[in-house]
From TrEMBL:
GO terms for biological process: glutamine biosynthetic process; polyamine catabolic process. Keywords: Ligase, Magnesium. InterPro entries: Gln_synt_N_sf (IPR036651), Gln_synth/guanido_kin_cat_dom (IPR014746), Gln_synth_cat_dom (IPR008146), Gln_synth_gly_rich_site (IPR027303). Its cofactor is Mg(2+). This is Glutamine synthetase. Residues 117-451 form the GS catalytic domain. It comes from Paenirhodobacter huangdaonensis.
Length: 451
């Protein structure tokens, strides 16, 4: 076992130090960001350098349905999965001593499988590397803690706090509100420490039971891996205390939605300097190009940032979510915000992505837009001064419209990969078709006896 334990991060080595490792979970993220793979006894894992899964896992919708392969005849060939040792991390909520390891996904010829979301993000990062650039990412995660919901026909409600009262909304940044479910937060911190993850901060957001976790800036794949792991551990922490954690974009009617805000800058690999700033500290022309790229191409990738029918309920005025692609300095009403910072930390905050998106695809989509902007060298619209909610929307109103924009954008399809885009669209259109067959309570209440 020492042959491979020397390859894993120190936090994982600390977790298993002096104990017998019972199990290893070999996992990959599917289109939805759900962990798929195999769990095996550590004694067996030691003797395997790879394992196999059918490539059909990337054709499975969020409902579990299998989508017909849009690329033609399909025989479900096996993919080759090999461990990415740097991702090994504890699963500290399990009864046994267990490690999780994200695996690289290749076909039988050794090529990256283009429909694997983690590979899509790596593809975008390679485009940056070819230009001598390195993106730097800092994501923010918002989610709700809610009461257990065992009947999908019943509305989701806030959890019961330690005071015996349900969590209240409109308490953004309240320390007392966070204390109401402090035991869940304590477990999140403990799990993160065991996993070797750095939390920049935890705060109460504006919704009832809504929490935000900020992560330290860094490499895009590494941070997407962390979000992938975090979603699982936060759910496990909530279950320990008789509530659910949900990453739905809009779980509770009348409350704000949950976003995955993405702070982005780009470093010149030769100089190590932020290309968004000039040597004198002023904003560079490339900074403007990047904003323009987001304004011009984000509509085509909204289907990745807002991947479900529920996602579009978040884009409403005055609910802490953008409705357009205006940009502004220190302006939280805009879809693209430029936070206050020094020249070295100059960045663009993309406020469009929902927390329900696959983190690999959300980061890939946002970075793809900036890349296209840097290559196209166009200027953005004038800065929005004032309330961007007063302006018209730039966003599609539903998943069907978003998929139409996604399908029609040749530049986006080229940078993300045509095969991935084709498969992703097929999966999402299947989900949208299923949703349209469901009759909602609103329809029964207002149409049953009135029309």
């Amino acid at each position: 076992m020492s042959d491979w334990t020397d390859l894993i991060p120190q936090a994982a080595r600390n977790y298993i130090a002096g104990r017998r490792l019972d199990e290893v979970e070999c996992i990959v993220a599917d289109i939805a960001g759900v962990a798929r793979g195999k769990a095996m006894p550590a004694s067996k894992f030691v003797h395997q350098d790879r394992f196999f899964l059918p490539n059909s896992i990337f054709l499975q919708s969020i409902t579990g349905e299998w989508v017909d392969n849009p690329m033609g005849a399909f025989t479900e060939p096996d993919m080759i999965l090999t461990p990415d040792w740097a991702t090994a991390t504890a699963a500290p909520w399990t009864a046994d001593v267990t490690l999780q390891i994200i695996h690289n996904v290749e076909d039988q010829q050794g090529n990256p499988v283009p429909t694997a979301p983690r590979n899509v993000l790596k593809r975008i990062l390679q485009l940056y590397e070819d230009e001598g650039w390195t993106p730097v990412i800092a994501p923010e995660m918002e989610f709700f803690l809610v009461a257990r919901n065992l009947d999908p026909n019943q509305p989701i409600i806030p959890p019961m706090g330690r005071s015996g009262r349900r969590a209240a909304g409109k308490q953004a940044y309240s320390m007392s509100a966070v204390d109401e479910y402090g035991k869940v937060i304590d477990d999140i911190y403990d799990f993160a420490e065991a996993q070797g993850f750095e939390i920049d901060g935890i705060l109460q957001e504006g919704g009832a039971g809504q929490v935000e976790i900020n992560l330290a800036h860094g490499d895009a794949v590494h941070l997407a891996d962390q979000i992938f792991f975090f979603k699982r551990q936060i759910r496990e922490a909530a279950l320990r205390h008789d509530c659910f954690a949900t990453f739905m974009a809009k779980p509770i009617e009348g409350e704000p939605g949950s976003a995955m805000h993405i702070h982005q800058s780009v470093i010149d690999r030769k100089t190590g300097e932020n290309i968004f700033s000039e040597p004198d500290g002023s904003e560079s022309i490339q900074f403007m190009y990047a904003i323009a790229g987001l304004q011009n191409h984000l509509p085509a990738v909204i289907a990745l940032l807002a991947p479900y029918v529920n996602s579009y309920r978040r884009y409403v005025p005055d609910f802490a979510a953008p409705i357009n692609l205006e940009w502004g300095r220190d302006n939280r009403t805009t879809g693209l915000r430029v936070p206050i910072s020094g020249p070295a930390a100059r960045r663009i905050e993309n406020r469009l992505a929902g927390m329900d998106c696959n983190p690999y695809l959300g980061l890939a989509a946002s970075l793809a837009c900036i890349y296209l902007g840097l290559k196209e060298k166009k200027m953005p619209r004038p800065e929005c001064i004032g309330d961007a909610y007063m302006n018209e929307t730039d966003l599609p109103y539903n998943l069907g419209d978003a998929l139409d924009l996604f399908s029609d954008s040749a530049p986006v399809r080229e940078v993300l990969g045509v095969e991935f885009c084709t498969v992703y669209e097929a999966v999402k259109r299947n989900e949208y078709k299923e949703f349209l067959q469901v009759i909602s309570p609103w329809e029964r209440e207002h149409l049953l006896l009135n029309v």
